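Morning!

This is the sequence you dropped in the shared folder:
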Amino acid sequence: MRSALRTGALRGIPPAAASSPTGPLRSSSSGISVGPRNLRGVNGKRLPASSVGFHSTASGQVVEGGEVAVGGGGGGATTGDSGGGVKVEMEVGGELPRRSRVTLAEVGERRRRKGRLVAPTAAPCDAGMFMGPTTGKPKARRWDHHLSPESARRAPCKLKLAAHHLKTPGMLSLGGGLPCPEYFPISSLTLHIPTPPNFSESSTLSAGEDATITKYAASLPIDAPGAAEYDLSIALNYSQATGSAQLTRFVTEHVELVGAAPPYADWGVCLTVGSTGALEQVLRMLCDGPGRGDTLLTEEFSFSTALETAAPMGVGVVGVKMDGEGLVPGELEGLLSGWDVGRGRKPHVLYTVPSGQNPTGATQSEERRREVYEVCRRHDVMIVEDEPYYYLQMGEIGEGRQLEGVEEFLDGLIPTYTSMDVDGRVVRMDSFSKVVVPGSRVGWITASQQLVERFIRHAEVANQGPSGFSQVILHKLLDNQWGHEGYLRWLMNLRVEYTKRRDVMAAACERHLPKEVVSWKPPQAGMFQWLKIDHTRHPDAGTKSIYEIEEEIFNSCIGRGVLVARGSWFRAEQDKPLSGLYFRTTFAAATPENMTEAIRRLGEAIRESYRL
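The structure's back. Tokens below.
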């Protein structure tokens, strides 16, 4: 049975007014709330109404607000001021909040109440238009002292701001240079996609369904055949740097459904050009290597692209020791407490991959994440939570139990850093790359409004947001066809499939690697198996360095026709000598037969080097 949250399933229900019965429509990442009363900004000045995206009323008219209150540095909406708002200080200590999730039914009811989303070309949007109530929740702390000078200087794009006037009915635009959709040489796109829960390639070929995206579907009446909220005339034109309102809505709801929403009121999301593009922007937002001598904290072995992103910025990197659960809180505490200012400014940003860490495969437990968060609170450290493998959390080898439903799947996920972030010091990066298609280059960040707003200011003059092709295809697949429940079932399916692959690699390692010198722990998330080789038992340990032994084994593997990743590539502190001998293998793409053969060849290369 298909999800009731499919857009098609919502058609025919009379759209409700944009305002919730329980309160005004809020634009939380812009600091705007639209309601019946006259509200004032923090400076006491009244401002005219401004809506981010807007919904049709029961009569089909565009909702217009009364007057609005601007609360300072918001997301993609009206003001580029990174100051203002209400600063709420929070004491360190006390129990961190537990994860809170909304239900599929709640999201469905919210959509039915608001009605059809009307968000034309270049319509500004933010998560506040689509999230649930935040009444009674505190605001995030402000992070002006952590922003880089570059980020603090960024101002809004004037042409992007001008698009806010397009919401006015009857407005004739001679402002923005938006090409005429009539001249777009693509009239429609048709996708052939799986039908949940039959996700296999063979099932898709035999019993999948076609989904067509046309050029002018969003301009049709809601009950007209082929009507849609998002079409090619919108997607293929210029847009706001936040990404489309249509996909932003889906992502915002998804964050709430999986329990990744922060416990404070003023959070937001922004679509990104994958996680790699997001990381570059976040580091430039928070770090200033040449000016302040900033240093980035990360695991002692870290994602090599992250290290390569920081290096040309002049940002130093310091690795924190790890164990089987990843980053060790005590080591982080000791490093920060004993920081020698002679090394430079005390680090104030931690980059971590908590689930299926790349390259080690380690996964931080809930308790571990809470301990790390508390250390960061004590030392005022921002956390960049990179979670491309979050939904690929697995059980122990051989468990193989099928989950009964999406609620059980969601309940089993380890809580995110954002879910326990009482301060607003976490920037979480998600991506469709590992769980849908990497070529989409679409992801998103979840963070406080202040940080999202600064991120948007950068995106406006850099990539200007993700590809419209990618956004409209993902929206058609995830929102129109599958709905939230279908997408969650897709993630459940991926977990099962990658668990099978993990188990194949584990069996191959057991069979083909020399256990007298090689040790490993099958990962419980992600795509990588980390192998530790005892360099002290190498016959040439007294005359060869660890690096030379690593190179010898690597070259032997290449000669045998197998490629593995050298552990030295992932060393956080590249200027320090190696302390151990490691290799990273992946079970992501190779067939079971090729995976097993590759591990056999790796075992041969190790035996040859160790003369076993």
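Headline: The longest helix spans residues 468-512.

More detail when I'm at my desk.
O.
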